[in-house]
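Lecture 7 notes: from sequence to structure.
We start with the chain below.
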Amino acid sequence: RHRLADFGLHVEHETRGAVRVSRLGPRDAQWARCRRAAAENARRGFFPADGAFRGLEVVDVYKVENKTLLDDFQARTEAVARREKAEESDKKSGKRVKGLFCELPPESLER
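Predicted structure tokens for the same chain:
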């Protein structure tokens, strides 16, 4: 946990604040959404029956904010939404990005 916090400070310094890494606690709404999303995406049949894994346990949640990538991502999604709206003005696409997740190897987290 401390190594990841140190890494976050280093990244924030190196990017002049454009990238930030922060740990979210169980009382944070985003922590709960992440836990729920992990559970929903690992439903029955996600793991092979003969495999070593039976389920997921969310231990820690970290938020990585990259302002440069976020601004670019939002501009692109807005352009797609405008294009879709122009093509299908009478239909609602229902597409929405709620969050992006990445996996961290367990050995990178201190317990």
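Points to note: The chain has three helices and two strands. The longest helix spans residues 67-87.
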